[in-house]
Description:
By secondary structure, the chain is mainly alpha-helical.
Amino acid sequence: MKLSLLFCLLVPAISAIVIQQPTRTVDSNIMLNKRQGSPTALPTAHYIKRDLEDTLSLYENWADDCSNNNDNNNAKVAVSDLNNLWQTVTNTVYCGNGKLKTVTKTVTATKSSSTSKGSSDTYGYGITVAQGIAGITCMLFGIFFLIFGYCSFRGTLAATGFVFFAVMTWIGLVNNEPLHGYPHNEIVYLCVSTGLGLVGSFLFIFIYGVSLYFVGGLAGFFFAVFILSWKENLVIQIQVARICFIVGMGVVLAIMIILLESYTIIFCTSFIGGFLFIIGLDLFIHTGLINAFLTIFDGNKNHTNVYIIKTPTYISLAFIIVLTLASFGWQYYWNIISKKKEFGINIEEKKEEKK
């Protein structure tokens, strides 16, 4: 009797110790909600060209928005994405001279969309007066270097001084431009760059002993930009390495003038002329080549510069080579073979005095 009573008391205790109740399974919906609380990080791998085109597509209609006086600012922008999603983007567009305009865009993602305008955020709406003046100026200087670069000593030094000082001034202005631009933005760029360019031209005429080597330096400067422009996002993507490469090319061609003056001067003037002519032409035909120059030298955090290479861009780069070779052949034949002329001041007069 006692044993049976003891057994009855021990059975519940043993079952309480050995037999454990199963834990409750967490509802899958609760786990899903917890996972949705913190969004999954975006993948780090991107296709550079697609990202660049997406960036351009957000800006390609800004010039139209600035020129549109209506209140209908809803514009559809197609961006290349794999997901069929849409979102509303509100941008504050700076239209120049302190004018701002708020634009609401419906961004629609499609699988087959692509940017057709390329770089309209760079060139703006049509061809502005400033672009026309800058383009014509670059083309005229390019023609001078292509034809008369070797035979006109003082003229070449003056043109080199103007281009060098104007470009350096533009780089300084664009990197220090405030968020909403300078007052009368285009006038500031044109007048200040032209004014300091004229100072440089007069200065280089009189210090020709030093300015002679700037012909090689300027050619190396443009030649480095030309090489970097053959790849989207540039051939050298590290900024410090790009600066070292550009400076190094300028120094190398400046030293080459000491070693092989005649041949180096012909090559330098030919390449400067070809590069300036195509850059000036690009301001009218909008191939996108100017974006490489902007990407390299415009480090302003308020500016968005995107360089995408398309077939017209390759054609522009190829024509720089064609113009350089044609000018080199012409200048070598006319000055070295036909005229037997050296590059310098009063060379012919000194030869006649010796005779």
